[in-house]
From TrEMBL:
Gene3D superfamilies: Leucine-rich Repeat Variant, Zinc/RING finger domain, C3HC4 (zinc finger)
Domain U-box: 9-84
Record protein name field: U-box domain-containing protein
Native species: Lactuca saligna
Annotated GO MF terms: ubiquitin protein ligase activity
Pathway assigned to this chain's UniProt record: Protein modification; protein ubiquitination
Role description: Functions as an E3 ubiquitin ligase.
Length: 430
């Protein structure tokens, strides 16, 4: 740039305010300032700024208008100055417009145009961040949700539902395309709330899609979309989730379709279990047994932490505690994870043991805790730096064991079971 300026004076209005170089594809922002397309798109979409670099005004309309007059002037000027080493700029390819996207979305509602339109929309959304924002701004999410719901209704009412041939195969392919587009749009909270709607009908649609889909990728996209939607939903909307919703989530965990799907499902459970009767619904769907099995084999710390957080929530209801105690490795693996995953996991593991001991802690349960070395772990919890609530929970459990030990000291069977655990209790009381 500096060498060129020594030979020829570049008109200042040819220069992009961001790059300070000659614009190859000048476009006008809604604020009236012209920039080079690549620069302003990077500013708005890759760097996620929402103001005009020059005026500092908030950019309400993200569509960029080509400045054809300026581009022709720059091209003519470049043509007149080849001796200065300036090459003529080629005419840029026209980007996708709102009008074209809207037409594709409307056409995609037509059965004979649907699949072709969806494939084009997918190519558009995968091209760049600007296209994603442009598609969202014209209401693509609502269009796609309508299409997916319509496909689901057709599959549900089809006499050959579940058969992957003919019409069903066509609908299945279309479903895959819609879910892929919705996933890659990276929708804003406002669009996600719009998808949820007032009745949560689209949640039911996604639940049926996850239940029926044969593509692991589509099931992953569906659960990730549900996670994003339920993160922005109102609490009252979350309490009305269908029990089948939890059964489908449990099946995704069982199938281990992908690491992304597992993490999204666990995060989804973390978000919805505190509300209403969702803990009970999840426990009755078999979540506790599956979560314990995952924890027994898991080596990934983040997954282990999330599993323990979900188990802690589920053990706050009687159904969850009952399921934990039914599993032969439930108490053992929870106790084992204390100090081995993270501080959060350790606190939640102690919370699980506290819930079980306090609300389901009969003699056999306390004896099992002693045999598993839980008492020793809890004594150690009191000695390390951890939260006040965690120490209080550990102390309360140890007091339960202490009372149980003293009241049954004359029982030879129980004395034989205490072993190292009783020694830990003696240390605790000292």
């Amino acid at each position: 740039m500096a060498d060129l300026e020594q030979d020829v004076q570049i008109p200042r209005f040819f220069i992009c305010p961001i790059s300070l170089e000659i614009m190859k594809d000048p476009v006008i922002l809604s604020t009236g300032i012209t920039y080079d397309r690549d620069c302003i798109e990077k500013w708005l979409f890759s760097q996620k700024n929402d103001v005009c670099p020059v005026t500092k005004q908030v950019v309400a309309d993200i569509e960029l208008t080509p400045n054809h007059t300026l581009r022709r002037l720059i091209q003519s000027w470049c043509t007149l100055n080849p001796s200065s080493g300036i090459e003529r700029l080629s005419t840029p390819r026209l980007p996708i417009s709102k009008i074209e996207i809207i037409k594709l979305l409307k056409d995609s509602k037509s059965p004979h145009l649907q699949l072709n339109c969806l494939k084009k929309l997918k190519a558009i959304v995968m091209e760049n961040e600007k296209n994603k924002k442009l598609m969202e701004s014209v209401g693509a999410a609502d269009y796609l949700a309508w299409i997916l719901t319509n496909m689901d209704n057709k599959m549900t009412s089809s006499p050959t539902a579940g058969d992957v041939s003919g019409v069903d195969e066509f609908i299945s392919t279309g479903t895959d395309e819609v879910l892929s587009i919705l996933h890659h749009l990276h929708l804003s909270p406002m669009s996600l709330k719009s998808l949820f709607g007032k009745t949560g009908e689209f949640v039911e649609t996604l639940t049926r899609v996850m239940e029926r889909a044969t593509s692991y990728e589509s099931r992953t996209y569906a659960v990730m979309l549900l996670k994003a939607m339920l993160e922005v939903a109102e609490p009252m909307q979350v309490t009305s989730l269908n029990p089948r919703f939890f059964m489908v989530l449990v099946q995704i965990l069982v199938d281990e379709i992908s690491q992304k799907a597992t993490k999204a499902t666990l995060k989804l459970l973390i978000n919805v279990c505190p509300w209403g009767r969702n803990r009970m619904k999840a426990a009755e769907a078999g979540a506790v047994q599956v979560l314990i099995d995952i924890l027994l084999d898991c080596t990934e710390k983040r997954v282990s932490e999330m599993v323990i957080v979900v188990l802690d929530q589920l053990c706050q209801c009687a159904e969850g505690r009952s399921e934990l105690l039914k599993h032969g490795g439930g108490l053992a693996v929870v106790s084992k994870k204390i100090f081995r995953v993270s501080s959060v996991a350790s606190e939640r593991a102690v919370s699980i043991l506290h819930s079980v001991a306090k609300f389901s802690g009969n003699r056999s349960v306390l004896r099992e805790m002693l045999q598993l070395g839980v008492v020793g772990k809890l004594c150690l919890v009191l000695q390390v730096d951890c939260g006040r609530k965690t120490k209080e929970s550990a102390s309360e459990i140890l007091k339960m064991h202490s009372r149980e030990s003293e009241s049954h000291r004359s029982s030879p069977n129980l004395n034989g079971a205490l072993g190292h655990g009783e020694g830990a209790l003696v240390l605790y009381k000292m």
